[in-house]
C-alpha cells in the first residue's frame, strides 16, 4: 500500500491538471487513513503505463506537458496511437494487439473520475489473455 501511496503522491506532484483528483485522494487519506480500491486501481494503471512506456510516473527532465506520465500518455492510448508511447527499447518487437489491450486497460484504470474506473477483478480478467503464450503452430 505504501508503494501505491508513493506512486499517487509523485504523480500528483507532476500534474497540475490532476490537482483536484490528488486533493480528493489526499483528503480521503487524511480523513480515513485509507485509500480506496479505486485509488489502488489508478495506481495499478500508472504501473501499467510505466511498463508500456518505460517512463517514470513523473520526470522533471522531460519538457512541459510530458512530465506527468498519465497526462502525456492518456491521449496516446487508443489502438491507432499507442505506438507513439511504447517503450522505444522494445524496438517494435511486441504483439500490437497485446499492447493495444494493455493500453486500453491502463486507460480505464487512470480515468479521472474514480467511479468510472473498473474494479481490480475486471482489470485482472482483461489482462489474463495477455499472459497466455500463443498456441504452438503445428509442424508440417
UniProtKB/TrEMBL annotation:
The keyword rRNA-binding does not apply. Residues 32-127 form the Serine-threonine/tyrosine-protein kinase catalytic domain. GO terms for molecular function: ATP binding; kinase activity. Keywords: ATP-binding, Kinase, Nucleotide-binding, Phosphoprotein, Signal, Transferase. Gene3D superfamilies: Transferase(Phosphotransferase) domain 1. Residues 1-22 form the signal peptide. It comes from the Eukaryota. Pfam families: PK_Tyr_Ser-Thr. PANTHER family: PROTEIN KINASE SUPERFAMILY PROTEIN, PTO-INTERACTING PROTEIN 1-LIKE. This is Serine-threonine/tyrosine-protein kinase catalytic domain-containing protein. It comes from Ilex paraguariensis (yerba mate).
